[in-house]
Design brief:
It is a single chain. This protein is mainly α and 381 residues long. The protein has three domains: 55 residues, no CATH class; 121 residues, DNA polymerase, domain 1; 195 residues, Intergrase catalytic core (hpI Integrase, Chain A), CATH 1.10.443.10. Helix content is 44%, strand content 8%. It is built from 16 helices and eight strands. The strands form three sheets. A three-stranded antiparallel sheet has the order 1-2-3. A three-stranded antiparallel sheet has the order 4-5-8. A hairpin with a 2-residue loop joins strand 1 and strand 2. The longest helix is centred in the middle third of the chain and has 20 residues. The protein is elongated, with a radius of gyration of 26 Å. The protein starts with 7 loop residues before the first strand and ends with a helix.
Length: 381
């Protein structure tokens, strides 16, 4: 007699069972490590049983370090798999570079601390607070401390979801003031871009930083810019991509693409001059690239900026705040606001997700794309 076919399928991936119901696409995590527990959980989903019988005894013997082993590994993290099964948009949240960075925190910060040897069934909020305090005493930066504790709390919360233990961990982040980013004066901007290549290594570097200063584009957005996104006849560009880690093309931050960004006349002129010298000018080619056509890594930007700083001495602004590459974006924002543009217009031009984020960039307050281009042209003459 043939065996009755079950209305679901189970799949063991890296020690975690996933289930898929008949005629319903997509796999979902049970969070269980044994087939029996997984079958019980699916039975609840199907309404066949009131409660799953989860066996916890063998799981409670794990140390924290052992528990963290599958987390934030490419292709095998139970937390990432669970989030993506609930919402496909979460795929963007867990990029390859993000997963690698978080895994490094787990291995180099959390698993190197005494907290890693505590049994999962015994860990408390006090243990996490003690871990946080040890990082403070070791003079680890507050941002890295909060990132490490945040990752630990995320993994432990996922452990509760998976039924590995029941104790909730609550620990507050360390509060700290972010160092303000410096802003260039109009006179300094004029000095930077008065001649080509000016204080930069070459015309390519000059054009790259002029683009940041005259449009408010982020570094990754300029590095991922391709010729097909620039219309020199109409003097406009589109920001639809950004280059991450010098390798991966992604959506701009917050997913904020910008169409019809008006270029100042000086920017159009410099782009025309630069294009005439370029070897790679096909629509799909990167505007700023190596001789072989491949995009630059972040090191190219650092070298160009360091050359400028050495030539000009522009290290801090009048308030002592450090002048960095991102200062060009801050400066663009502040100049437009000083010239009377509305906050809403600047927000649209610069690609912020909300007015609250804009307040972090400027102490002032904000028209349209054409007006911003005219303002930059007028100030750089």
């Amino acid at each position: 007699m043939a065996r009755t076919r079950k209305p679901y399928r189970l799949w063991n991936r890296d020690g975690i069972f996933y289930y898929r119901l008949k005629d319903i696409p997509g796999w979902k995590s049970t969070g269980a490590k044994t087939r029996t527990d997984a079958e019980n959980i699916v039975a609840v989903v199907l309404g066949e049983r009131p409660q799953p019988a989860i066996s916890r005894k063998p799981k409670a013997n794990l140390t924290l370090c052992e528990f963290l082993q599958p987390y934030y590994k490419l292709g095998g993290c139970p937390y990432i798999a669970y989030k993506q099964s609930k919402d496909q948009r979460a795929i963007r949240q867990f990029s390859r570079s993000h997963v690698v960075r978080v895994r490094a925190l787990i291995e180099k910060v959390i698993c190197e601390d005494p907290i890693a040897d505590i049994r999962l069934s015994e860990i408390t909020s006090a243990d996490v607070e003690a871990f946080q305090l040890r990082l403070v005493k070791a003079l680890v930066g507050p941002r890295r401390i909060n990132q490490s504790v945040g990752v630990l709390k995320t993994c432990l919360s996922d452990g509760i979801r998976r039924g590995l233990f029941e104790r909730k961990i609550t620990v507050s982040n360390i509060r700290y003031d972010e160092k303000p980013t410096g802003i260039f004066t109009v006179e300094q901007l004029k000095a930077l871009f008065a001649t080509v290549p000016g204080p930069f290594i070459d015309r390519q570097g000059y054009t790259f930083f002029l683009l940041l200063a005259s449009t408010g584009a982020r570094r990754g957005e300029a590095m991922g810019l391709r010729w097909k996104s620039i219309d020199l006849d109409s003097g406009k560009l589109q920001i639809v991509e950004a280059l991450r880690e010098g390798k991966e093309l992604v959506h701009p931050k917050w997913g904020k693409t910008r169409a019809d960004v008006q270029l100042p006349a000086i920017m159009v002129q410099r782009l025309r001059e630069y294009r005439r010298e370029c070897d790679h000018v096909l629509p799909g080619s990167f505007v700023f690239c190596r001789p072989d056509g491949k995009p630059y890594s972040g090191g190219w930007v650092v070298r160009q900026w360091a050359h400028m700083v050495k030539a000009t001495g522009y290290r801090t602004d009048k308030d002592g705040h450090r002048l960095i590459v991102h200062s060009l974006r801050h400066t663009f924002n502040s100049i437009l606001l000083q010239q009377g543009m509305t906050a809403g217009a600047v927000q649209a031009i610069i690609g912020w997700s909300s007015p609250e984020i804009q307040k972090r960039y400027s102490h002032l307050s904000a028209g349209d794309y054409r007006q911003s281009a005219e303002i930059i042209d007028r100030l750089l003459k």
